[in-house]
Each structure stands twice: as structure tokens, then as C-alpha cells.
UniProtKB/TrEMBL annotation:
Protein species of origin: Enterococcus aquimarinus
Classification via InterPro entries: BCAA_transport, Leu-bd, Leu_Ile_Val-bd, Peripla_BP_I
Zinc-finger in keyword set: no
Full protein name: Leucine-binding protein domain-containing protein
Family recorded in the similarity comment: Belongs to the leucine-binding protein family.
Superkingdom as given in the UniProt entry: Bacteria
Length: 429
């Protein structure tokens, strides 16, 4: 164990021997390698002794059972953390969610804040990496003392934050982490994890039914990303629900660019619908290459398609007879909050809001309702308020949180013609 790692473990245990650290480092610098080895050995023994004797601190960073006091308190402002993919492969999701939250906070603060306090956003870029997401969550919860966190956007990154936010007892609400296991650990609910989106199993079931009932598809091909929990969950749910024949099942890996060999197999098969559980980066390229090979059958996917870059990668002329499950569509407003949201978004950003903009906007307002319901803006109260959220009227639908911290809400199947949304069918749970 190196000296830097030992220091980190001391900090993590909240054993703040700053005076000792300072002088040991000075001795190490003077004494060279021999003294360094001695000091590392001394520090290791001090760490083991402290780790065995340290009890719970007053900082609320030890994991506790349900209902235990913990987390952070609001100060002069209500600090909300953003842990989002603002760079890296799936930055398209994170940047859209940042836009949605910032619009929500602007509206909330202009209307007087929450319980008379302004909302302050503290933003971290997790770089589309699970390790960075875990670090960002720890920093937001322990260093920045936020009372709640919005994000990450993806399921893998969100799951990576669970140990740190559970230890800190700070609630997280992801706008778009749809993997069923995000809010569940086996049969146990993850106490501090919530989402404003529906989960993969719901999407997979709806897509299977849509393929059969609306598209009349008796034979399906599945072309799935085998490198993500997101795609695996969607594939499993679809296969369990689909009553037709799955004539071919192929896989790709995140980052693949050339799908010609797989699509040649697909073209030779007798099928009615091509199901692609995956994200927009690969989906866009698959759609482009499929259409260029002359594959004309309907292509369906889940909310991972929901980024304008999907159309850019595929080419608008290739994105027809394409359908995906979304949480929001301007063609199918769910309630009276949608039109004002669209107008405000257009005014601020000069474009139509996306699914991810809308989900993040709702996530912030769900936190607001949780605070107002509990009449308190500390982490414990927000956790309780989110767990018991009922009849929330959001732009992505009316939401009541179920026992597994999943929102009960409607779903929209969006259809594309020439790269533009041309249809939207609302499906209730």
C-alpha cells in the first residue's frame, strides 16, 4: 500500500490527523527511500488501529437503516448536485439533461425558490465513465454537501454511484437510468436511488407488444449491444414478452462502426421487424448501413435512440419506418404543463426539447415537490419525499412513485419519417 493510498483511506474514514500527516511527509522528504518505507509501515498500522476503533461520526456518512437521520442539510441555498456525462461517448445524454435541469432551476428561482431558498447547482462531468461517476458522487455528497443529486444519465454509471451515495445518505434521481437493477439489489430496494424514467422491463414489454399488434410482426431479429446492462435488460424483456418467432439474434459491442457482416446475415433472413436494443451512437450507424443494404423492414428500439445524433449518424433520408419508446414527445403532450415547458425551452435554447431535456426537467421538479411535501430541504426529508411521491404532474406524464422507486407513468412510442418525428402513440402502464 502506497503512502497516497493510505492518506486517502484516512480521509475516507474521517480521521483527520493533519498535524501527523504534515510532519511525516516532511520526514519522508528528508529521509529518502529507507525512511519512506518505515513511515508507510507506521501509517499502515495507524490506519488499521483507527479503522477498528472508529465509531459513527456526526457527519452522516455511515450507512444506516431506513429512516435513519443522515445526509446533508440545506444552508443559505439548496445545493443540488449534477453528476452527468458532459463529455465522452454519451455526452449527448448528459448535456441535454443539464439543459433541462438548468431551465427548471431558472424557473424555480424566478418564482421564489423552494421554501424561500434559492436552488444552487453544482455540476460535475463524469466523462461517460463509471469510475468518474462514482468519484463525482462522492465529491458532491461529502465535499460539496449537496442535499440531492441528479444523474448520471446511464444505468452503468448510476449503479457505480450507489455505494458512495448510500454511505453518504444523499438521494440520487436519474433522469434516464432505465436498467431495472438501478433501484433494486435483489429483493432489496436501494434506499437512496430514484428515477424519473420508466425501467427497461416496461420498455421491452411495450416494444414486443407494439411489434406484434401495431406492426403485425410475426418474425423478429434482435441485434443487441452485448456490452451494456441496458441492452441486456431490454433484450431479456422483449424475448419474454414477444409471442412471434425470433429468427436471428446477433450482437455487437459498444464502439463498433462496421456492421456490414451482421447486416448481410440479416438481409438474407425472412423477418418482419429488426429490434436494436442499444444507444444512439451504434443505432444510427446500423440504421444507415441497413438501409443502404436495402433492408426496408421496420426498425424498433428503446429510449437510447432518443438523441438528434442518431438521425445525424444515420442520415435523415434513412430514418423512416423507425420507432422507439420515449418518455416525451411534443406531438403527444401528456398534460397542461407541456406547452409552457416547450415555449420556455425554445426561448432559452432556440430548439425543440428532447426526451432527455424533459426527463431532467421533471427530476428537478420532483425534488422540489419532495421538499415541499416534507417542508424540509435536508437529504433525509428529500429521500422520504421522493419515496412517497404521489400525483406529480410532470411534462413527461403524471407520476406516482412505486415501492421499488420507479415512477408509474405513461410511455410514448415515437415514429420517424425522413428523420423527423411523424407519430407519437401514448401507452399507459
Amino acid at each position: 500500500m502506497g503512502i497516497d493510498e493510505i492518506f486517502r483511506k484516512f480521509i475516507d474514514k474521517e480521521i483527520k490527523f493533519r498535524y501527523i500527516e504534515k510532519h511525516i511527509q516532511r520526514v519522508i522528504q528528508i529521509g529518502g527511500n529507507k525512511m519512506r518505507k518505515k513511515m508507510v509501515f507506521l501509517f499502515a498500522n495507524l490506519f488499521l488501529l483507527a479503522a477498528c476503533s472508529a465509531g459513527p461520526t456526526g457527519g452522516g456518512n455511515e450507512t444506516s437503516g431506513s429512516g435513519a437521520a443522515g445526509g446533508n442539510e440545506a444552508g443559505e441555498t439548496i445545493k443540488i448536485g449534477l453528476n452527468l456525462e458532459l463529455s465522452g461517448p454519451v455526452a449527448g445524454y448528459g448535456t441535454q439533461e443539464q439543459e433541462g435541469v438548468e431551465l427548471a432551476v431558472e424557473k424555480i428561482n424566478a418564482e421564489g425558490g423552494i421554501l424561500g431558498k434559492q436552488v444552487e447547482l453544482i455540476t460535475k462531468d463524469n466523462k461517460s465513465e463509471t469510475s468518474e461517476a462514482a468519484t463525482a458522487a462522492a465529491n458532491l455528497a461529502t465535499n460539496d454537501q449537496v442535499v440531492a443529486i441528479i444523474g448520471p444519465a446511464t444505468s452503468g454509471a448510476t449503479k457505480a454511484t450507489i455505494p458512495n451515495v448510500t454511505k453518504a445518505q444523499v438521494p440520487v434521481i436519474s433522469p434516464s437510468a432505465t436498467d431495472d437493477s438501478v433501484t433494486m439489489n435483489g429483493d432489496q430496494v436501494q434506499e437512496f436511488l430514484f428515477r424519473s424514467c420508466f425501467q427497461d422491463s416496461f420498455q421491452g414489454v411495450i416494444l414486443a407488444k407494439y411489434a406484434q399488434e401495431q406492426l403485425g410482426a410475426e418474425k423478429a431479429i434482435i441485434l443487441a449491444d452485448n456490452s451494456s446492462d441496458y441492452a441486456k435488460g431490454l433484450t431479456k424483456a422483449f424475448k419474454e414478452e414477444y409471442q412471434g418467432e425470433i429468427v436471428l439474434e446477433e450482437n455487437f459491442t459498444k464502439g463498433d462502426k462496421d456492421f456490414q457482416a451482421i447486416l448481410t446475415k440479416v438481409k438474407k433472413a425472412d423477418f418482419d421487424v429488426l429490434y436494436i436494443p442499444g444507444y444512439y451512437e451504434e443505432a444510427g450507424l446500423i440504421i444507415k448501413q441497413a438501409r443502404e443494404l436495402g433492408i426496408e423492414q421496420p426498425i424498433i428500439g428503446a429510449d437510447g435512440f432518443g438523441d438528434e445524433k442518431m438521425v445525424q449518424l444515420a442520415g435523415a433520408e434513412n430514418v423512416s419506418n423507425v420507432f422507439y419508446t420515449g418518455h416525451f414527445s411534443t406531438l403527444a403532450p401528456s398534460n397542461d404543463t407541456v406547452e409552457p415547458f416547450i415555449a420556455a425551452f425554445k426561448e432559452k435554447y432556440g430548439k425543440e426539447p428532447s426526451t432527455f431535456n424533459a426527463l431532467a426537467y421533471d427530476a428537478m421538479f420532483m425534488i422540489k415537490q419532495a421538499i415541499e411535501k416534507e417542508n424540509a430541504a435536508d437529504s433525509a426529508s428529500i429521500t422520504k419525499g421522493l419515496a412517497t411521491l404521489k400525483d406529480f404532474v410532470g411534462v413527461t406524464g403524471n407520476i406516482t412513485m412505486d415501492a421499488q422507486h420507479n415512477p408509474e407513468k405513461s410511455l410514448v412510442v415515437v415514429g420517424f419519417t425522413d428523420g423527423k418525428e411523424s407519430s407519437a402513440e401514448v401507452i399507459n402502464p
